[in-house]
Amino acid sequence: MNKIAELRKSRGLSQLALGRQVGAAQNSVSNWENGAREPDNATLLKLASFFDVTVDYLLGRTNYRDLSAAKPDDVALDEIEYALHGEIRELGDAEKAALLDYARRMRRLLEYEREHGATGPRGYGDDPV
After folding, report:
1. Using CA atoms, how far apart are residues 64 and 102, in angstroms rounded to an integer?
2. What pTM, to 2 d.p., does this model score?
3. Cα of 23 vs its chain's centroid, Å
4. How do residues 16-40 score in pLDDT, each as one tens digit?
């Protein structure tokens, strides 16, 4: 069963009620639950916060609702990833979404540089992707 549906039902919520909690329409919740669509990043963060689970849990990438419940061998986080996780927990939803966007843009830039060679000093506005 879809994790979002499972969590929603465990709280006794209708799709409409969950949608109201995260600022989405009932048909959006239905689409997430039946696999027709996935929530956007900001909504995933709201859902994770609302249900007090990780985004990876919502997406079915792990069976651990919270990283603290996993044993170190079960979660392949290096030292930096673990530190980032701790820092991120302190941020609000909008800040988390902005940080995720920034990380994805940085990853695309680094991939571009690997493929095309270093482009020199980075500045605002010369983002090739």
Report:
1. 26
2. 0.54
3. 16
4. 999 999 999 999 999 999 989 989 9
